[in-house]
Design a protein that fits this description.
It is built from 22 helices and 22 strands. It is an alpha+beta fold and 686 residues long. Residues 482-601 form the Alkyl sulfatase C-terminal domain.
C-alpha cells in the first residue's frame, strides 16, 4: 500500500510504504485480540444500526412461559477478549432467550433447542407441530418442555410436507452426507473449542445439535401453488414456494388464528438464496394476518409490523439480485460484484434484515453463479492449477516459504488480512509442516472473523484458524438414523452405491447385470455395470429382466444394501450365479473421508509434478539487484525508484495539495523501499 503523506509545516510530501499501527504478538498458537483496524471495520459495519430501539427485545421476550433448567451458550476462558460487531452480540442476546413462548392463544414456540424453532398449534382435534427440528434428542427435549404446562393424549399422526420433500431431504443428507457435514460443522462452529474469542452464534441459533438425524415420511404432500387442507379441525391455506431458500418449502396461513408461517423464507435476518427466483407472492390475505412466525428466530406481532417486515424482506432479497445482474451486465466478475454492492441505508439500518446468517456478499455471488456459472469468463482462469500445484509454483517464484512468510508478515502488519491469508494458504499447501505459515494464516483469518456480522461466516474463519493452530480435533460422524433407510426408496439407496463405484474395478466388470429386490416393499431393479458406470434401472416393458446373471432378494432394504457392499450372501436369497455378488461388491469403493482436510492438502489427491522456478536463478537475481543498488549510490536514482511518469504525477498531486493549503514551495521526496539511495528533488512550484 502506497500513501501520499503531507505536512503543511514542513511542506514535505513523501511516498512511502504504510506501516503497522500496532505491535503483533509472535507467531504461535495463541488467540489474538482484534486489532485497531478490525475494530474500525466493525464500527463501520454497525454505523447504520440504532441500538437504542428496544422494540426487538420486547418482541423476543413476548409470551415467555418456561425456560429449561440449564442452558450453556459458550464457555469463556483466557484474558484476551475480542471486540465483535454490536449486531452479532445483539443477536446473541436474542438467541439466548430459550424456552417455551406463547405466541398467541393456542400457539406456542420452543426456541433454542436446535437451529430451528418448534411451533405447536393447539387445534380442536389435536396438536399440530410445525418443524420437528433436525435430530431426535433436541426434538424430544423441546416437546417435553412444552408438555410441562400441557397434557397430551397419543393419537393418529399426519405429516404434511411440500412437493419433492422426500427426494430433497434424503438425497441431500444421504448422497453427500460426509462432505456436507464437514462444511456444516465449519459453518455452525461445532469444531471451535470453547474460549472467549470463539464462536458466538450460527445466525439461526447458537449451533447445530450433534445427535442422530431422523426422518418421517409425509402423509400429505403440497403439490400445487395454492392448496386448502383441514387438519385437526383447523383450516390451512398452503402456498408452495420451491427454491427461494430451500429447494422444497411452503408457507401457510391459518385464517381462524390469523397466523402466517413463512417457513425459512422470511426470518429475522438475511437468508442464503442459492437461487434468486424468490417465493411466489400472493398477498390477497395479508391484511388479515395478525402475527407471523417462521422456522427460525421469534415472531412478528401485529399486522403493521408483519407487513413492514415482509416488505423490507422482499426488498432485501430483490436488491442484491437486481444489482448483481446489473453489475454482471457491465462485465464485473463475481468477486468484483461482491466488493461493489452495498445495501441502501434504509435497508442496512433494519436489524431484522441484516446479514446475521446469510450475507450480501455471499448472496450476490450466488446470483452470479445462478446466471453464468462458476467461471468468470477469463481464459487464464478457465484451467487454473489445483491448489497444491498452484502453491508450489507461487512459493518457488517467491524464493521459498520463508520469503512468502516475510511478505505475509508485512501484509498482516499493514492490515491486509485477506491477502495475507491467501498467500499464507499457498505457503501451507506448499509445505503443510510449516507451522509459522499456519500460525500467520490463522492470525489473519481470526481478524477477518472478528469483523464478520454473519455468524456462519465468522465461524468459518474461526474454525479454519482453530484447525491451523491445533489440527483437526475429534470430529463427530454423520449419524443418520435407521429411519432414513426405512423411508428411502430402493432406487435412492442404490444411487448411494452408484457414487461409490471404483472405475478401475468396475471396468473389469463391464456387462455385469443382476436383479435386486426387497420383499417387504415389493421393489425390484435391474442393476448393471456399463463402462465403469453403475445403472439402477426399473423393471418395465422397455427394460425386461432378461440378460441378468443372478437375482438377489432380501427381506429389508438394509439387508440388501449390506449384502451388495459386503458380499454377504446370507442376507439374501440367491437365484443364478452367486459369484456375481462378489464381482459386484468388488466394484464398490471403500474409500471415504468425512473429515477431509480443509486447511491443508487433501489426503486423497496426488499432485502432478511441476517445473518450478529454480532457486539458483532467484539467488542470482538477488545478487544482481544488490550490485545495482550499490552502484546507485554514485549515480542518479531516478530509474531505481519511481518512473518519470510517476514523479510527474506526484509533482502534480503535490501542486494541487499545495495550492489548497496555500503553500508556495514544496519538496518532493520519493523513496523506494530497501534502496540504499533516497534521491530528493526540490522544485519551486511557486
Amino acid at each position: 500500500m502506497i500513501t501520499l503523506q503531507g505536512n503543511s509545516s514542513t511542506s514535505t510530501y513523501t511516498i512511502a510504504a504504510a506501516v503497522a499501527t500496532g505491535a503483533y504478538a509472535s507467531l504461535d498458537a495463541s488467540y489474538k485480540p482484534a486489532s485497531d483496524f478490525t475494530k474500525a471495520e466493525i464500527a463501520e459495519s454497525d454505523k447504520n444500526l440504532n441500538f437504542s430501539n428496544y422494540t426487538m427485545y420486547e418482541e423476543v421476550d413476548c409470551g415467555f412461559v418456561v425456560a429449561p433448567n440449564t442452558t450453556r451458550i459458550m464457555d469463556t476462558s483466557g484474558e484476551n477478549v475480542a471486540i465483535d460487531s454490536d449486531a452479532i452480540i445483539a443477536l446473541a442476546q436474542f438467541l439466548a432467550r430459550t424456552g417455551v413462548y406463547r405466541v398467541q392463544d393456542k400457539v406456542y414456540q420452543v426456541r433454542g433447542m436446535d437451529l430451528a424453532t418448534m411451533t405447536i398449534i393447539e387445534a380442536p382435534e389435536g396438536l399440530i407441530v410445525v418443524n420437528l427440528l433436525g435430530s431426535s434428542e433436541p426434538a424430544k427435549i423441546a416437546f417435553e418442555l412444552y408438555m410441562t404446562h400441557e397434557s397430551f393424549i397419543n393419537g393418529s399422526i399426519q405429516v404434511v410436507a411440500p412437493l419433492n420433500f422426500v427426494e430433497e431431504a434424503l438425497s441431500e443428507n444421504y448422497m453427500v452426507a460426509g462432505s456436507m457435514f464437514r462444511r456444516a460443522f465449519y459453518m455452525y462452529g461445532n469444531l471451535i473449542k470453547p474460549h472467549a474469542q470463539g464462536s458466538i452464534h450460527a445466525g439461526l441459533a447458537f449451533g447445530a445439535a450433534n445427535s442422530q438425524f431422523g426422518f418421517v415420511a409425509p402423509t400429505i404432500s403440497i403439490d400445487t401453488d395454492l392448496e386448502h387442507h383441514t387438519m385437526a379441525g383447523l383450516d390451512f391455506e398452503f402456498m408452495l414456494t420451491l427454491s427461494p431458500e430451500a429447494p422444497s418449502e411452503f408457507h401457510f396461513f391459518v385464517p381462524e388464528l390469523k397466523l402466517l408461517n413463512t417457513g425459512e423464507n422470511v426470518v429475522m435476518g438475511m437468508h442464503n438464496c442459492l437461487t434468486p427466483r424468490g417465493a411466489k407472492e400472493d398477498l390477497r390475505s395479508l391484511w388479515l394476518v395478525e402475527n407471523m412466525i417462521g422456522q427460525h428466530h421469534w415472531p412478528k406481532y401485529g399486522n403493521a409490523a408483519v407487513v413492514e417486515h415482509l416488505e423490507n424482506y422482499r426488498d432485501t432479497i430483490k436488491f442484491p439480485h437486481n444489482q448483481a445482474v446489473r453489475l454482471l451486465k457491465l462485465g464485473l466478475g463475481m468477486e468484483e460484484i461482491s466488493e461493489t454492492i452495498e445495501l441502501p441505508a434504509s435497508l442496512d439500518s433494519n436489524f431484522s434484515t441484516r446479514g446475521h446468517y446469510g450475507h450480501l456478499k455471499h448472496n450476490s455471488k450466488e446470483v452470479y453463479q445462478f446466471y453464468v456459472g462458476w467461471w468468470d469468463g477469463k481464459p487464464a482462469t478457465y484451467q487454473q492449477l489445483p491448489p497444491v500445484e498452484r502453491a508450489q509454483q507461487y512459493a518457488a517464484d517467491m524464493g521459498g516459504n520463508a520469503e512468502v512468510r516475510k511478505r505475509g508478515e508485512w501484509h498482516r502488519d499493514n492490515e491486509n488480512y485477506r491477502y495475507c491469508a491467501k498467500i499464507m494458504n499457498h505457503a501451507v499447501f506448499n509445505d503443510p509442516t510449516d507451522m509459522a505459515a499456519k500460525y500467520l494464516e490463522a492470525d489473519c483469518l481470526e481478524q477477518i472473523g472478528y469483523s464478520e456480522e454473519s455468524g456462519p461466516r465468522r465461524n468459518y474463519m474461526q474454525t479454519g484458524s482453530e484447525e491451523l493452530r491445533h489440527g483437526k480435533g475429534a470430529y463427530p460422524p454423520a449419524d443418520l438414523g435407521p429411519s432414513f433407510v426405512l423411508n428411502m426408496p430402493l432406487y435412492m439407496l442404490l444411487q448411494g452405491l452408484e457414487i461409490r463405484i471404483n472405475p478401475e474395478q468396475a471396468n473389469k466388470a463391464h456387462g455385469l447385470s443382476i436383479l435386486v429386490g426387497v420383499e417387504e416393499t415389493n421393489e425390484m431393479l435391474d442393476v448393471r455395470i456399463s463402462n465403469a458406470v453403475m445403472l439402477s434401472l426399473p423393471i418395465t416393458d422397455m427394460n425386461p429382466r432378461s440378460g441378468s446373471t443372478a437375482n438377489f432378494t432380501a427381506k429389508t432394504r438394509s439387508d440388501l444394501i449390506a449384502a451388495l457392499v459386503t458380499e454377504n450372501s446370507s442376507l439374501v436369497s440367491v437365484t443364478g450365479d452367486i459369484d456375481a455378488l462378489k464381482e459386484f461388491a468388488s466394484c464398490i469403493s471403500t474409500d471415504e473421508d468425512a473429515t477431509w482436510n480443509v486447511m491443508t492438502p487433501r489426503d486423497f489427491y496426488e499432485p502432478k509434478p511441476q517445473k518450478t522456478y529454480p532457486a539458483s536463478l532467484i539467488q542470482t537475481l538477488v545478487a544482481q539487484t544488490s550490485t545495482a543498488e550499490s552502484s546507485c549510490v554514485e549515480q542518479s536514482c531516478l530509474d531505481q525508484g519511481l518512473s518519470v511518469g510517476a514523479v510527474v504525477g506526484v509533482a502534480v498531486a503535490a501542486l494541487i495539495v499545495g495550492l489548497v493549503g496555500g503553500i508556495g514551495v514544496n519538496t518532493i521526496v520519493y523513496r523506494r523501499k530497501n534502496n540504499a539511495c533516497a534521491a530528493e528533488s526540490t522544485t519551486d512550484l511557486g
